[in-house]
Fold this sequence. Notes:
Elements: E1 4-5, H1 16-28, H2 38-58, E2 65-68, H3 71-82, E3 88-92, H4 97-107, E4 112-116, H5 126-132, E5 137-143, H6 155-165, E6 170-174, H7 186-189, E7 193-197, E8 208-212, H8 227-230, H9 238-252, H10 255-272, E9 279-281, E10 293-298, H11 303-311, E11 315-316, H12 334-337, H13 342-346, E12 348-352, H14 359-380
Parallel strand pairs: 1-11, 3-4, 3-5, 5-6, 6-7
Antiparallel strand pairs: 2-8, 7-8, 9-10, 10-12
Amino acid sequence: xxxxxxxxxxxxxxxxxxxxxxxxxxxxxxxxxxxxxxxxxxxxxxxxxxxxxxxxxxxxxxxxxxxxxxxxxxxxxxxxxxxxxxxxxxxxxxxxxxxxxxxxxxxxxxxxxxxxxxxxxxxxxxxxxxxxxxxxxxxxxxxxxxxxxxxxxxxxxxxxxxxxxxxxxxxxxxxxxxxxxxxxxxxxxxxxxxxxxxxxxxxxxxxxxxxxxxxxxxxxxxxxxxxxxxxxxxxxxxxxxxxxxxxxxxxxxxxxxxxxxxxxxxxxxxxxxxxxxxxxxxxxxxxxxxxxxxxxxxxxxxxxxxxxxxxxxxxxxxxxxxxxxxxxxxxxxxxxxxxxxxxxxxxxxxxxxxxxxxxxxxxxxxxxxxxxxxxxxxxxx
Length: 381
């Protein structure tokens, strides 16, 4: 087996069609989309086409789509764009660092933040959400799918509670890990703001998007030339955006078949792990967890050691969020919040799948674990 890539929640391999589109835009559509001449107009048409592809996929209006540099910027734009000092914000204890770290800084600057608890599945308590709502609650920011455990939040119920309790509170959904994997109709979801990223769906890095519900006006983070409907100034990354459009088109083709193939991979992997002792499946195959993520704790082994041992077999996995994987000083806060013990959290590995993975790759990975695990446990003693 040449290479088994099971770290698709960190990033995905760009499709060849995406790479070709990016290259073509750099070579032929290099003009500024804001320029008035023909080359600029042609570039603007490319930009418009990509926006329409994303809008069609999300059942949104093109003018509701704002392109960003990625999911982190989209999250920051959503949070900072609607709140002011003194406002109350509700989030969870397991959000992506681009939300958690931002809110921790804001908490020091006259913002009031409530961090909701989660259960062993990573899901919030809806009653706690309801009781946390206040007169000055301005924003609820909750991720759709957790990037480490694959937990799926009850988004529709969350939004129903917010709408019932407040007319002015806005709802932001970080859908970076759900995008392209779960069916997504922004009108049916009913959120005010939703974040997306291209490189999680075999698109290019450095490009994402924020859905902004029609009628909602955000305070811009970047002042400048007024691009992106005067919400996100700066010359657009046309090659990345156009590549994003191609990735979205490809994600839409055979969507249900791709979902079923990924479900089969996870089911096969879990079956193959049944013979192992002292392991814990943290994200089982059920309606509360996305099929793309399988988080497993191998007790008696540090996850980082297991990661590098698998790398010797050309198998690439993760111990958690790629945004904090190299920062050893920052302990994992997601798994303990879900009730995992320190040893279970320390031994956790995230396997994340794409429809491009195969059953043969899963079998190869299971065989490698069979060889690696007993040895690692012996030397860890």
